[in-house]
Amino acid sequence: MSSIKMRPPVAASREDRSFWLQSIAADAATTPLKGSETCDIAIVGGGYAGLWTALRIKEHAPETRVTILEADFCGSGASGRNGGQVHTWFAEIDMLRELVGTEDALMLCRATADAIDELKTLQDSGTIDMDLRLDGWLWTASSAAQEGAWSKAYDLTRTLGEKRFRTLDRADMLKRTGSSASYLGIVEDRAGTVQPAKLALGLRQLAISKGVIIHEQSPVLEIVPGAQPQLRTAQGTLSAKKIVLAANAWLSAIPELHPYLYVVSSQLIATAPAADILDEIGWVDGASICDAQHHVLYYQRTPSGRVIFGRGTGGIAYQDRIGSSFNRSGDKGLDNIRELHRVYPQLKEVEVQYDWSGPIDCTAQHLPVFDHLKEHRNIFYAVGFNGTGIAQTPVAGRIMASLVLGRDDKWSRCGLVGIGRRTKLPPEPLRYVGAKIVRGAIRRKNDVEILNQKPDRITRFLANLAP
Are the C-beta atoms of 51 and 251 separated by less than 8 Å? Predict the structure, then answer.
């Protein structure tokens, strides 16, 4: 039986790590795998998805021996590089319903709301200090073209009796954000922001306290399938009864998954503390804010008065080869700085002290998928979080735990399980060339529409080809 070669992540250098990671001196706290070990369930990936899966397995079957292999250190990937935005799946309920049906869509959306409550409990109990602030999530419009982007989700939630969103007018927006750039939108009140690296390291410690074995700095080079599959690293071998693959974008290297995934980068910056300016303009709370561009802007004010400002869909990976360019943007954050100063001209004299990026694993439906490899029923995977995971991965952990433990319940039966209904993407090099062309068109379209002008017909056509 042939083995599955893995493409280990290119670890970010210390200076290329996110502000979140650098600010708390995050690093490995466990030893690499050396020699031969065995366990019941092995998990590849020590980010949110892998850690939550381990915790959920321990909830159902405490005696199960669970080992996590992490290529760098827990939270060093997407879990420690994101914008720290916490909101439910109700914002995607229309897409969920189209894929999984109304009943499952509601169940999954409510589960992410429960996950936010769980995060609050973890913080309030002193279990994990994650700087969680439930001051709301704002979905906004900064141009006529963006107006009503939320209408499908907003209308559907109300039709289904879920009043999760409130509308905001121009005065509301100015009061909440301190900026006149966005003038219309909705807010999900039970949502907000976290310090994502603190959450990741807190989950690491919680998992260890539950008896989960974690080996950091142990990139998996090869998976050897079989009745007792093996994970091989540079210094050791881990044998398990079952394997869970939770390595987000790097799973695109697996031939069976590659047709369904595309990898892009999201780029972020962090300013120096500027609490006095933010207080003066009225931006005082911990709400997370997004606009409705196709390449969405997302931002938050940290407790110390820094501004974290990000933009999706920067670099594109050819054949999903994720190199060092995905750890830090080549323009040193200039594109984000330009947008930051458009939204907050008051911050033009404030130093931008950090810029970083990271790969995002995307599916055509913009929703994750859970399954086992077709020829290997004891090798499971969770992939395709599309840059949205803080309230979603606690739910993903429930789905994966049910699948790997063989449970027949609402999680193992939910419509996100099974890759057969998902859309395949074009092969390379058509995928890469096409993505570059479409990305350029989307950027041109965004830049024109933000001025309330209409893009040319060719640009509109190309931009509409995006998944």
Answer: no
Distances (CA, A) of 130 to 50, 303, 304, 306, 388: 18, 11, 14, 16, 17
Distance in angstroms (rounded) separating the CA atoms of residues 226 and 378: 8
The helix-helix angle for 393-404 and 48-60 (nearest 10°) equals 50
What's the pLDDT tens digit per position in 92-151?
A: 999 999 999 999 999 999 999 999 999 999 999 999 999 999 999 999 999 999 999 999
Cβ-in-10-Å burial (0-12, 13-18, 19+) of 281 comes to middle
Q: How far apart are alpha carbons 144 and 203 in whole angstroms? A: 41
Instruction: Using DSSP, state whether 371 is helix, strand or coil.
Output: strand
Residue type at position 63? E
Q: Is the pLDDT of residue 315 over 90?
A: no
Q: CB under 8 Å to 462, separation ≥6 — which residues?
A: 437, 438, 440, 441
CA distances from 12 to 80, 350, 357, 358 (A): 12, 26, 10, 9
Say which amino acid occupies 267.
Q
Does residue 361 surpass a pLDDT of 90?
A: yes
3 state SS of 362? strand
Nearest to 134 by CA among 205, 181, 187, 185: 187
Question: Do the Cβ atoms of 9 and 219 come closer than 8 Å?
Answer: yes
Mean pLDDT rounded to a whole number for the chain: 96
Residue 346 predicted with pLDDT over 70:
yes
Q: Which amino acid is at 292?
A: A
Distance (Å) of CA 156 to CA 71, 79, 102, 304: 41, 30, 10, 37
Contacts of 56 (CB under 8 A, 6+ apart): 397, 398, 400, 401
- Contact of 278 with 246, CB cutoff 8 Å: no
Please tell me whether residue 126 adopts helix, strand or coil conformation: coil
CA distance 98 to 44: 31
Residue 316 to residue 30: CA distance in whole angstroms: 33
**Which pLDDT score is estimated for 1?**
63
HSE, side-chain direction, 13 A CA sphere, residue 67: 24
Type and span of the H or E element at 278: helix 275-281
Bridge partners, residue 30, by sequence: none
